[in-house]
Amino acid sequence: MREEDSNWFSRWEEELPSPEELMPFSQSLITPDLALAFDIRNPDHAQLQQPPPPSQPSLSEFAADSGDLGSGEAGDEPARTLKRPRLVWTPQLHKRFVDAVAHLGIKNAVPKTIMQLMSVDGLTRENVASHLQKYRLYLKRVQGLSGGSGGGANGGSGGAGLGASADPATDRLFASSPVPPHFLHPGRTNSEHLLPSVPVPAMQHHHHHQQQQMVAAAVGHPHLQSQYHRPQMGHYGPSRNSQFEHPFLGRQTQQPMHRIGGTPVHNQAPSSYVEDLESANGNGGRKVLTLFPTGDD
DNA sequence: GATCCAATAT
DNA sequence: AATATTGGAT
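Predict the joint structure of the above. Result:
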């Protein structure tokens, strides 16, 4: 069984989110309104945010922007004293979360660290803490179901493993991403890896507009709007365990910045990015949203 | 004082 | 049900 551990681990490593993969994710989390409000027109963002290709499927459909009930308060109030809209954990965001936890190792996987690794702008420690709490419960449940200690980690893809036990309705979100075995049995720290996190722009929806693409993390509907950013600089100082350190994990806070230097931001075809979101159970073809259209769809 | 975590509230 | 907020413990 140890061997298996190493095995899957290797696999895991290979599947680690590469910068390229992480990139696509970063798009749409921010609404144009917000961007404008903050004067953030980072060239990079500009490109990423408004992909020329008309293929702009109605992300709005699943854009968790759920409701922008038309409150109509088109306000303009400064982003002060505004409440953050509820964060919606999409499969993509969750994936990022799981990856972060996996890389950190159960021991170091605490909200703050996870948040830093995820490097999603706008994500708060509380957001992560809350999600983590639930995720832990999920792991326990799965562990319990595992019962015989047989395989354990199956994900939604296999389609069979634990599907039988719990209700299908069981955390479909969690089922969308594989659960690393060590999660199930503590005791192993894990190696130090770099998760080159590309600065991920934010999330949080703010207002409604016509077709917007916000997918990854969307936000519920706040009565108010707009919100802001908080300066939380990330500093990595694992004072306890030595070894893992990220040279550049600083989340890109607001800073207008101008890095048009010679960085050919070539986001080569983001490709379809459709990863393992499958898990179609016999319920009717549950399809997890397709990631961003990235152009070919 | 910061942050974790479990409980509790919305 | 999912996420946020609170409160006690480290």
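Residues 84, 86-89, 126-127, 130-131, 134, 169, 173, 220 of chain A lie near DNA strand C (CB under 10 Å from a C1').
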